[in-house]
Design goal:
By secondary structure, the chain is mainly α. It has six helices and four strands; from the N terminus they run βαββαβαααα. The chain has helices at residues 26-48, 64-86, 97-120, 123-138, 142-163, 172-176, and strands spanning 22-25, 55-56, 59-60, 93-96. Helix 1 runs antiparallel to helix 2 (64-86).
Length: 180
């Protein structure tokens, strides 16, 4: 059936995703980027209309420049869409499946690090992130990775909090250890 997933869990049937075969084409991503840019421009224009967009006795209103920037963003997006539409090349690969997988293998742990820093502070999530990346991408053993993550974060604590007196965000673990 068209659009159904194959046994490998993610590849649509009938679509080859061999190494080097585009997972996303440049044209598709250029259209998506132009559409996103036009959307941002539209939001800027709509929001600036809630303010004065003209010129008054004291100068430009508070929505004057944002309104024009929003129109400029929409215009640039339209020009780019026209350029993409007129371009004959539709098969230039932007990213292959393997390249996307490698990029996401760095993106997702980094996103998790950023999210974890809000409730847990800077030190523990950064140490875990460093250990994970050493293990996953560096090929080091777990023991070395964990020790290295702990040593680096301890050095950061000593350098920033104690020596430079520039405290980084701390979480419940640091509070429990009395390191505030």
């Amino acid at each position: 059936m068209a659009g159904s997933l194959s046994d490998d869990g993610g590849t649509p049937e009938g679509v080859p995703y061999a190494e080097g075969v585009p997972y996303a084409t440049r044209r598709t991503l250029e259209i998506a980027t132009a559409a996103a840019l036009a959307l941002v421009g539209g939001i800027v224009v709509a929001e600036s209309l809630t303010h004065a967009i003209g010129w008054n006795e004291t100068g430009p209103g508070s929505g004057y420049f944002p309104f024009r920037i929003g129109l400029l963003l929409i215009g640039v997006a339209m020009v780019r869409l026209l350029q993409v539409r007129l371009k004959p090349d539709t098969t230039t690969a932007f990213v292959t499946r393997e390249e996307l997988r490698r990029s996401l293998s760095v993106f997702w742990p980094t996103a998790a690090l950023v999210i974890a820093m809000f409730p847990l502070g800077c030190y523990i999530p950064s140490g875990v992130y460093l250990a994970w990346m050493m293990r996953r991408h560096g090929g080091h053993g777990w023991l070395l990775s964990i020790v290295y993550g702990a040593v680096v974060m301890t050095a950061f604590f000593l350098i920033f909090d104690l020596w430079f007196r520039v405290p980084l965000a701390k979480g419940p673990v640091e509070a429990a250890l009395g390191l505030y």
